[in-house]
């Protein structure tokens, strides 16, 4: 339905497994309509149909509990797959938005409650160090000089409040900065 008020009247009287709302509806946009539906039906699956950029409001969508985003240009088959994905508890997002979601910083909380932020490069260094590589090998793998690597390691030790490579690795594993299985 193009008119959000008419859509709201219909959906307030009926329950559906999946709702698809166009983002730019008149009077009440798709986000507002989704918010209203999710207020009285928190487990509803809501997919936002859009022809515009959603990066700026992506966090609002996530906080609200939106199940996916699809483009108006999707084919009938893509639309059906998106609906089934929502029913199965999967999220559908455009690939260009997905690539923007990559973390560049990792925030962890130490035992004393202090929050520490490690950069993507620092986390990469910890992963390489956990493989048992020497400083020379690690530096080569992360594309920096040995001296720069050593400065980075010192900075990591300070952030994690440890005194050695071994202590840093133990703490990094405990904090989930290094996967349990290193490939």
TrEMBL record:
Residues 1-87 form the Response regulatory domain. GO terms for biological process: phosphorelay signal transduction system; regulation of DNA-templated transcription. InterPro entries: CheY-like_superfamily (IPR011006), Sig_transdc_resp-reg_C-effctor (IPR016032), Sig_transdc_resp-reg_receiver (IPR001789), Tscrpt_reg_LuxR_C (IPR000792), WalR-like (IPR039420), WH-like_DNA-bd_sf (IPR036388). SMART domains: HTH_LUXR (SM00421). One of its GO terms (cellular component) is cytoplasm. GO terms for molecular function: DNA binding. It comes from the Bacteria. It is found in: Cytoplasm. Keywords: DNA-binding, Phosphoprotein, Transcription, Transcription regulation, Two-component regulatory system. Residues 111-176 form the HTH luxR-type domain. Its main location: cytoplasm. This is Putative response regulator. It comes from Amphibacillus xylanus (strain ATCC 51415 / DSM 6626 / JCM 7361 / LMG 17667 / NBRC 15112 / Ep01). The lineage of its organism: Bacteria, Bacillati, Bacillota, Bacilli, Bacillales.
